UniProtKB/TrEMBL annotation:
InterPro entries linked: Extradiol_dOase_DODA, Xdiol_dOase_suB
Enzyme Commission no: 1.13.11.29
Protein's organism: Achromobacter agilis
The protein's enzyme class: oxidoreductase
The UniProt record lists the keyword Zinc: yes
Gene Ontology terms for molecular function: ferrous iron binding; stizolobate synthase activity; zinc ion binding
Presence of keyword Nucleotide-binding: no
This protein's name: 4,5-DOPA dioxygenase extradiol
Assigned protein family: Belongs to the DODA-type extradiol aromatic ring-opening dioxygenase family.
Occurrences of domain Extradiol ring-cleavage dioxygenase class III enzyme subunit B (ranges): 26-246
UniProt keyword terms in alphabetical order: Dioxygenase, Metal-binding, Oxidoreductase, Zinc
CDD domains, A to Z: 45_DOPA_Dioxygenase
Cofactor(s) needed for function: Zn(2+)
Length: 258
């Protein structure tokens, strides 16, 4: 079986205890596969740098890389196995495309990785490797990176890009079901339309073409993992959820190449 790829919007860390529609959508998709992958490679904007790095821990831990949230959030763990072997395979695969990646034996899983994984694989029994987000790559560069990673799909590896379809923390408002700001559904609809049309050139030109682009993403870090998933999975996209949290966080999740 060739695995598809996923883009998941992890939104606020509160997703871990407020599943809303997104948590069940991820859990249902995972259950529908009927089996688990040999390993997971996940890209999150909460590990960014110039160039790429791979986590090589033997055992993963959940890093509570946030502050000011309810105490229960800091008790949650995700102790999935790591996979130095998978990290080395990814490193070698990228090297074949002239893309360098370092190994980091200390890096834990940030919340962009472990929060959605708690819904996808709650038993924490699938080995996980995290790949950092290269902040020097634009959408086209992230797409090319995803394409370089695509052979992993034939090796029983699930590739996940974790970010947020919209991410402007200045616009977040309580409660979780606060009315959406107008630009949020407009931005969602544009992506849904362009993904359905497989219009990759338009998707790469999102900053100029997508309505409310500068409001949706004052910085592009939370959108770039979508392009990694798109590059690895190909343009055939299925939308799993279109929830909006806290008025400003579009929680869309997409499957590519299913």
């Amino acid at each position: 079986m060739r695995w598809p790829t996923l883009f998941v919007s992890h939104g606020s860390p509160m997703l871990a205890v407020e599943p809303g529609l997104t948590g069940p959508a991820l859990a249902d998709w995972s259950a529908a596969q009927g089996r688990k992958p040999k390993g997971v490679l996940v890209v999150s904007p909460h590990w960014m740098g110039e160039g790429l790095a791979l986590s090589t821990r033997d055992r993963q831990v959940a890093w509570h890389d946030f502050g000011g949230f309810p105490p229960e959030l800091y008790t949650l763990q995700y102790g999935a196995p790591g996979s130095p072997a998978l990290a080395s395979r990814v490193q070698a695969l990228l090297a074949g495309s002239d893309i360098a990646a370092e190994q980091d034996p200390r890096r834990p899983l940030d919340h962009g990785a472990w929060v959605p994984l708690r819904y996808l694989y709650p038993e924490a029994d699938v080995p996980v490797v995290q790949l950092s987000l290269d902040m020097g790559r634009d959408a086209a560069g992230q797409l090319a990176l995803g394409r370089a990673l695509a052979p992993l799909r034939d090796e029983d590896i699930l590739i996940i890009g974790s970010g947020s379809l919209t991410h402007n923390l200045r616009h977040v408002r309580m409660p979780q079901n606060a009315p959406a700001l107008p630009y949020v559904p407009a931005f969602q609809d544009w992506y849904a339309d362009k993904l359905a049309a497989r219009d990759v050139p338009a998707l790469l030109d999102w900053q100029a073409q997508a309505p409310g682009a500068s409001q949706a993403h004052p910085h592009d870090d939370h959108l770039m993992p979508l392009y990694v998933a798109l590059g690895a999975g190909g343009p055939a996209a299925t939308r799993l959820t279109d929830e909006i949290s806290y008025g400003a966080l579009a929680m869309d999740a997409y499957v590519f190449g299913e």
